[in-house]
Write a structure and sequence with these properties.
2 copies of one chain form a homodimer. Chain A is α/β, with parallel strands linked by helices and about 160 residues long. Chain A contains 3 helices and 7 strands, in the order βαββαβαβββ. At the A-B interface, strand 1, helix 2, strand 4, helix 3 and strand 7 of A face strand 1, helix 2, strand 4, helix 3 and strand 7 of B.
């Protein structure tokens, strides 16, 4: 039953007892599930029919994106603290094939109702990067990074 | 240059101008990069040699996990607010093949220095779920969900 620790990518490789290295789902706590579901649908993302009245699952190139009531998420996760104000200290990134694709994606997100935090610009290290926030303030980076080649699933391939 | 919007999984399918559905990276803002890098290494996760003194990249079964100074993340993302106190309203999940694998993974995480927020228990819907926090309070769910079959990359496959 420790086979998951021996997989080349989905599992850890250092120890058969290590914690498998996976980001299976990213769950975002939201204040208004229909509003947030509409936002990600407006981005053009495909919702799984496994979604319910309490949780929305969206397919991505990697793990699933889940939307779940913020207060329910506090309870479920066993945290005593409510969600704090301000930036949440987490960003999610969409890496794209070209600087132009970054510009277009940020425009599309804005059309879907996103708040643009930073218009795409070329970074000193050669990348082209912008940021937007979803209706709850969750921050998405949209980036072209010439040093991060993308695999067939659209995810970055690093050594 | 809109080819990424036509990919079966890494891209959106509803519109050629939609935002590609990708979680390429999850970046966690951390207060002490060496401390957090040591923690994820202690989980048995493999760090990419593309990591630098400012950012650590870890391979996962999906997108990359990046660790980056919390204040730098505030500046980079163009957010004006500093990181708020309390729960951040985001959880990351590691889905595993069995209830026993969940129990073992949470024990391993605790050995690596994680704070266990909720010991694994069987949920009313049949899953087996626990939660731990990393050194900055970022919350990880560890779950066996019999309704979410896992693919060869260890990621859940939903309709």
């Amino acid at each position: 039953m420790i086979t998951e620790a021996r997989e080349p990518r989905g599992g850890a490789t250092l120890s058969p007892m290590a914690v498998p290295a996976r980001v299976s789902l990213v769950t975002l706590g939201v204040a208004d599930l229909p509003r947030s579901t509409a936002f990600y649908s407006a981005l053009g993302w495909t919702m799984s029919p496994a979604s319910t009245a309490e949780v929305s699952f969206f397919h991505t190139g990697g793990g699933l994106l889940a939307l779940f009531g913020e207060e329910d998420l506090v309870t479920e996760s066993g945290t005593l603290a409510a969600v704090g104000p301000g930036f949440r200290g987490v960003t999610l990134a969409i890496n794209l094939e070209s600087p132009g694709a970054v510009d277009r994606a940020v425009e599309e997100a804005e059309s879907a109702g996103a708040t643009v935090l930073k218009r795409p610009e070329t970074a000193p290290w050669g990348g082209h990067v912008g940021y937007f926030a979803d209706p709850d303030g969750h921050v998405w980076e949209v980036a072209h990074n010439p040093g991060f080649p993308l695999g067939p699933d659209g995810l970055p391939r690093l050594p």
